[in-house]
């Protein structure tokens, strides 16, 4: 782990999980996390000056196209943001979107999906399917890849299941970053990494999972795609940190996908924090992870 990553980890933990709140009641911890998340919004970098950002709002599809010089018209990445299904949007991901566009020489569509609690599962999946159909219709014949981080990783996998089951043309490849695939919080790492995790709160993700699931059972494959049928998925890359409470979501998915005959590569990064890619401007491991995603997709673009 680089010294910069170590420093960023310390700062994230101080902001999201300060020592004075370790023994605090659940409600106090969750309120602090919400405040910290809101404070973080103003510090998230915008798109670089050479990036082009184009808003999309068709009434059923919302999001932003982002591309940098050199992005090819025959490569598209559809990206779903994280935020526990209750927070976030394209504007918070413009910097990462531009970095992905630059590394992959691709146009990136940052999906703006409806959030809980106002809109519970399967609303986000419906929005992702509508966006996928829109992208295909507007760009006939162009290969589409899909990626997402945290909850967006779960949404990406759930959407891939829905695409497969509806007999649509599948994306050519997937990338899941620190994905949240089990909203029940039943993974072993939720317990074993509880004290090592620098950002997420184990109780918090369980509550957010219940909020997002709504009338569905939290172990339904739509809010928790880990429990779905993994057969027929396109080649998939999974990147996750070794000390995340969501680590088991990735390791269990990796085994299930392999058992189903899928091509899936799991890359566990030592001591990396949740979605370290978001700090790629500071953390060299973030730059390397994005570069490895780009190399993975490069192998599957087929153009």
From TrEMBL:
<comment type="similarity">
    <text>Belongs to the 'GDXG' lipolytic enzyme family.</text>
</comment>
<dbReference type="InterPro" id="IPR033140">
    <property type="entry name" value="Lipase_GDXG_put_SER_AS"/>
</dbReference>
<dbReference type="Pfam" id="PF07859">
    <property type="entry name" value="Abhydrolase_3"/>
</dbReference>
<feature type="active site">
    <location>
        <position position="150"/>
    </location>
</feature>
<protein>
    <submittedName>
        <fullName>Acetyl esterase/lipase</fullName>
    </submittedName>
</protein>
<feature type="domain" description="Alpha/beta hydrolase fold-3">
    <location>
        <begin position="77"/>
        <end position="278"/>
    </location>
</feature>
<dbReference type="InterPro" id="IPR013094">
    <property type="entry name" value="AB_hydrolase_3"/>
</dbReference>
<dbReference type="InterPro" id="IPR050300">
    <property type="entry name" value="GDXG_lipolytic_enzyme"/>
</dbReference>
<dbReference type="GO" id="GO:0004806">
    <property type="term" value="F:triacylglycerol lipase activity"/>
</dbReference>
<keyword id="KW-0378">Hydrolase</keyword>
<dbReference type="InterPro" id="IPR029058">
    <property type="entry name" value="AB_hydrolase_fold"/>
</dbReference>
């Amino acid at each position: 782990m680089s010294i910069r990553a170590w420093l960023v980890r310390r700062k994230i933990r101080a902001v999201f999980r300060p020592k004075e709140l370790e023994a605090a009641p659940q409600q106090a911890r969750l309120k602090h996390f919400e405040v910290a998340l809101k404070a973080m919004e103003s510090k998230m970098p915008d798109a670089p000056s050479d990036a082009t950002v184009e808003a999309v709002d068709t009434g059923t599809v919302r999001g932003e196209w982002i591309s940098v010089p050199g992005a090819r018209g025959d490569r598209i990445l559809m990206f779903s943001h994280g935020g526990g299904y209750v927070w976030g949007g394209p504007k918070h991901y413009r910097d990462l979107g531009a970095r992905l566009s630059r590394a992959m020489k691709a146009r990136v569509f940052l999906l703006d999906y409806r959030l809980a609690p106002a809109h519970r599962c399967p609303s986000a999946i419906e929005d992702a399917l509508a966006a996928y159909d829109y992208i295909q219709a507007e760009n006939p014949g162009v290969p589409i890849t899909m990626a997402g981080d945290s909850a967006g990783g779960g949404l990406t996998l759930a959407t891939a299941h829905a695409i497969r089951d509806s007999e649509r043309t599948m994306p050519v490849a997937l990338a899941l970053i620190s994905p949240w695939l089990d909203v029940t919080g039943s993974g072993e790492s939720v317990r074993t990494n509880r004290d090592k995790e620098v950002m997420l709160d184990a109780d918090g993700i369980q509550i957010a999972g219940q909020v997002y699931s709504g009338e569905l059972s939290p172990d339904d494959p739509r809010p928790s795609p880990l429990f779905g049928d993994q057969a027929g998925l396109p080649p998939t890359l999974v990147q996750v940190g070794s000390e995340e409470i969501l680590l088991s979501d990735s390791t269990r998915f990796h085994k299930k996908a392999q058992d189903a005959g899928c091509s899936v590569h799991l890359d566990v990064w030592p001591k990396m924090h949740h979605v370290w890619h978001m700090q790629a401007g500071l953390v060299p491991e973030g730059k390397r992870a994005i570069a490895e995603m780009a190399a993975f997709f490069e192998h599957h673009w087929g153009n």
